[in-house]
C-alpha cells in the first residue's frame, strides 16, 4: 500500500473510532442525563419503546409491560389477581404509576433507572445493545411485600370504608410485609395510553377530597395519642422507674402554670385509690398518670428516647419518600405533659409507629425499614439484595422486656386474651381545631407472638372510621391489626 492510500485508511479508521466513541458517549455515558432533560421531546417515545422491567412481590407481578400495536410499543399494566379484584388498588401506594401524561410515582419513580435500564450497572449491556441492535430491556424490582398480608391489610380497611393505613414489619430484619393505604385507586387508569382516558382519571383522582393517590403510610403524619405512651414509658424506665412505681390516679390533671386540665378517658379515675402503679396506668392507658410521669422524667429524656426510635431523626427513604415524624416543640412542663400522651405537636407516620413496635419486639434494636428485597438485571441476574441493617440500640433489652410485659397486659385488657399472645398499645388521638367535637383518629400498634415476635403492625383509622366521637383505638383499629397479625403468622 502506497503512502497516500495508507493516510486515507488511517484517516477513515480514526473517523470511525471517533464516530463510535461519540455515539457511545451520547447513548451510554450521558444516557441518564439526556433522558431526564425535560427539553428532550424523544424521551417519551424512547421510554415506551423499550421493555420496562417488572415490579413483583414473592413471585406475584405487581407491574409489567405488555406489547402493543401502536407507536408506543409497550403498555404499562398493573395486573389484577382474579382471586382479589382489588389487587391493583391494594398495591398502588407501593408501585405508583407510569404514565405518558402524568410522569411517575411510587417505585415506578424511585426505581426508574433500574426499571428502564439506564442505571449505571447496565453500562455494558447498553453498549452491547447499541452495537448489536438488540432491543434494550430494563431490570426488575423485587419488593419485601408479602402478597397475602398486603391483601388482608387492604381488605380490612377497604371493606369497612375506612380512611387510613396499615404497615406490617418483620422485627428482626426491618422488611416491610405490608403497606396499605385507603382509599386507593387503580393505576391502570392513569397509565392508559389514551390521553383522554388518562387525563379524565387524573382529574377525577386529583380532585377527590379523600385523596386516593396519597400514600398515608409514608406521606401523612398524625398525632399518635396513647400509642406514644410506649416512648414515654421507655424514657421513664431507662431513668429508673419500675412497673410498681406509683403516679396520680386522679381523673384530671391541671397542667403546670396553666388552667388547662387533661383528663382520663371518660373522666374516670385510674383505679380505686389516689395513686396507681405504672403497670395499671399502662394497662388502662391513664392520661393523668402519664402526664405526671412525663413531666417527672423530663423533656430531654423524652426527646432523646424518641430520637433513638427514629423520631426527629434523619428520614431514610425506603426508597419511597417518607414524611418526617416529630416530637415538636416542648417549651415548658405544660407542653411536656401534653406531648407525653402523644398530643400537642407530636406527629408520626404509620410507618414510624410500626418501627416503634418492631423495635420493642426486636429487644430494643431498631432496624432500618426496607421495601426492596432485590434488584435484578433483565436476565434475572442479581444486582443487589437487601441485608438486615441495624440503625441503633434504641433502648436496653431489659427495658424492651418490661415494655413487652406492659403491652401484653394492655392487649389483655382490650381483647381478653386467647389465641396467639399479642403485645399491643391502642391510641385515641384528638385533632383538629375543635377536638371535642371532632371524631378522633384511632391507633393500634402491636407485635406477635409476644415472646418470639415475627410481625409488628401499626394501624391508623382516620376520624374513628365512621366519624363517631366515641371511637377508640381498641374498638376500631385493633380488630384490623389483629387480622393482619393472624395473616402474617398463618401465611397465604
UniProtKB/TrEMBL annotation:
Transmembrane stretches, start-end: none
GO annotation, biological process: cell wall organization
UniProt-recorded Gene Ontology molecular function terms: penicillin binding; peptidoglycan L,D-transpeptidase activity
InterPro entries for this protein: Beta-lactam/transpept, Beta-lactam/transpept-like, PBPA_dimer, PCN-bd_Tpept
Pfam families referenced in this protein's UniProt entry, alphabetically: PBP_dimer_2, Transpeptidase
Domain called Penicillin-binding protein transpeptidase: residue spans: 164-485
Record's GO cellular component terms: plasma membrane
Domain Penicillin binding protein A dimerisation: 52-141
Protein name, entry field: Penicillin-binding protein 2
Amino acid at each position: 500500500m502506497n503512502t497516500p492510500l495508507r493516510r486515507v485508511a488511517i484517516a477513515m479508521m480514526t473517523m470511525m473510532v471517533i464516530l463510535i466513541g461519540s455515539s457511545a458517549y451520547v447513548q451510554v455515558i450521558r444516557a441518564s442525563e439526556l433522558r431526564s432533560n425535560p427539553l428532550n421531546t424523544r424521551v417519551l417515545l424512547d421510554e415506551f419503546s423499550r421493555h420496562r422491567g417488572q415490579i413483583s412481590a414473592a413471585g406475584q407481578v405487581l407491574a409489567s409491560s405488555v406489547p402493543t400495536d401502536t407507536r408506543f410499543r409497550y403498555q404499562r399494566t398493573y395486573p389484577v389477581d382474579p382471586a382479589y379484584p382489588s389487587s391493583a388498588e391494594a398495591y398502588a401506594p407501593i408501585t405508583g404509576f407510569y404514565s405518558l401524561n402524568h410522569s411517575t410515582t411510587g417505585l415506578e419513580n424511585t426505581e426508574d433507572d433500574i426499571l428502564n435500564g439506564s442505571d449505571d450497572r447496565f453500562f455494558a449491556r447498553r453498549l452491547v445493545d447499541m452495537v448489536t441492535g438488540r432491543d434494550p430491556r430494563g431490570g426488575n424490582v423485587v419488593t419485601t411485600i408479602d402478597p397475602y398480608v398486603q391483601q388482608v391489610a387492604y381488605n380490612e380497611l377497604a371493606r369497612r370504608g375506612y380512611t387510613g393505613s396499615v404497615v406490617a414489619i418483620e422485627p428482626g430484619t426491618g422488611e416491610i410485609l405490608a403497606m396499605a393505604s385507603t382509599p386507593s385507586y387503580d393505576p391502570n387508569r392513569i397509565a392508559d395510553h389514551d390521553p383522554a382516558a388518562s387525563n379524565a382519571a387524573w382529574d377525577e383522582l386529583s380532585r377527590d377530597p379523600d385523596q386516593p393517590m396519597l400514600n398515608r403510610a409514608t406521606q401523612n403524619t398524625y398525632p399518635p395519642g396513647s400509642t406514644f405512651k410506649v416512648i414515654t414509658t421507655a424514657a421513664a424506665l431507662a431513668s429508673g422507674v419500675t412497673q410498681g412505681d406509683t403516679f396520680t390516679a386522679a381523673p384530671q390533671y391541671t397542667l403546670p402554670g396553666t388552667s388547662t386540665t387533661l383528663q382520663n378517658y371518660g373522666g374516670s379515675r385510674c383505679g380505686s385509690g389516689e395513686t396507681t402503679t405504672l403497670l395499671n396506668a399502662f394497662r388502662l392507658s391513664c392520661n393523668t398518670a402519664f402526664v405526671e410521669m412525663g413531666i417527672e422524667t423530663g423533656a430531654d429524656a423524652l426527646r432523646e428516647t424518641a430520637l433513638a426510635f427514629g423520631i426527629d431523626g434523619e428520614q431514610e427513604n425506603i426508597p419511597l419518600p417518607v414524611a418526617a415524624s416529630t416530637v415538636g416543640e416542648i417549651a415548658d412542663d405544660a407542653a411536656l405533659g401534653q406531648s407525653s400522651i402523644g398530643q400537642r405537636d407530636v406527629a408520626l407516620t404509620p410507618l414510624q409507629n410500626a418501627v416503634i413496635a418492631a423495635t420493642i419486639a426486636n429487644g430494643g434494636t431498631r432496624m432500618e425499614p426496607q421495601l426492596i428485597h432485590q434488584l435484578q438485571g433483565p436476565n434475572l441476574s442479581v444486582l443487589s439484595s437487601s441485608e438486615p441493617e441495624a440503625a441503633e440500640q434504641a433502648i436496653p433489652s431489659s427495658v424492651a422486656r418490661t415494655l413487652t410485659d406492659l403491652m401484653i397486659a394492655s392487649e389483655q385488657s382490650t381483647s381478653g386474651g386467647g389465641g396467639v399472645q399479642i403485645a399491643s398499645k391502642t391510641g385515641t388521638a384528638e385533632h383538629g381545631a375543635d377536638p371535642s367535637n371532632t371524631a378522633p383518629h384511632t391507633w393500634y400498634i402491636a407485635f406477635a407472638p409476644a415472646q418470639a415476635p415475627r410481625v409488628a403492625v401499626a394501624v391508623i383509622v382516620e376520624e374513628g372510621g365512621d366519624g363517631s366521637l366515641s371511637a377508640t383505638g381498641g374498638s376500631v383499629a385493633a380488630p384490623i391489626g389483629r387480622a393482619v397479625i393472624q395473616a402474617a403468622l398463618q401465611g397465604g
